[in-house]
Automatic annotation (TrEMBL):
Xref: Gene3D superfamilies: alpha/beta hydrolase
The protein's name: S-formylglutathione hydrolase
GO molecular function, one term: S-formylglutathione hydrolase activity
PANTHER family referenced in this protein's UniProt entry, alphabetically: S-FORMYLGLUTATHIONE HYDROLASE
Subcellular localization: Cytoplasm
Active-site annotation: S150, D228, H262
Amino acid sequence: MTSITEESTNKVFGGWQKVFSHQSKELGCKMKFGVYVPPQSDSGPVPVVYWLSGLTCTEQNFITKAGSQSHAAKHGFLVVAPDTSPRGCNIEGEDDSYDFGSGAGFYIDATEEKWKTNYRMYSYVTKELPAVIAANFKVQADNNAIMGHSMGGHGALICALKNPGMYKSVSAFAPICNPTCCPWGIKGFTGYLGEGNKNVWKEYDACELLKKYNGPPLEILVDQGKGDNFLADGQLLPDNLVGACAKAGVPVVMRMQEDYDHSYYFISTFMGDHFDHHAKFLKD
């Protein structure tokens, strides 16, 4: 069994919100992740929902602010919330800005020499972490969903699109829909993947991945606040995702929410809808 260490545990809605740490082989550092263990886990294996957080976040933001536990308890889902990047790798420049390096792993596997050893969040989320969860919790290993916010919304979308059938459903709050075309994505991809590797960039862009998606039917749910300042700044580009889905024949429900911003106030308001969405596809 993969060794994990329990850092905290709190009873909530009949289940347990826990935080664990472990030594990640993919990232070469100690990582923390949150796990909500629902009361239904006492009776047998349960489905798993992965949550990917946004820029600057740790595993704490989601588990303390999103109000997810009541919905997870209602549906009997184990919910996993990893950190957003490697930590403490002592790479020059890793803590220089909020949108690159620490807290900004972008859920890709870096190819640039300086970052490629540690910044492998895509492989961590899609390979190592699921193996850790399967080895340590009573879960239905082939019954997974994924969702996220902002940078994590981008992460959820690409993980689902790059691994047809691995996740039964996907949803996102204010995702970075088209990172190869927005300032956040261009900065991150240039640093991690190299300025001249535009074909590699496309492998981590939902709008590009949709062009060649040929997996099982996938219905995407997205909530986007109309009062989101990052929407106005051109970082999120939801219209590009809608257009790419239309061309690819992949259903997307894009809900533009009047006055809501980019915060966890927005996320917590519609969290129940997203759990209901995943419940349609995660069958016992």
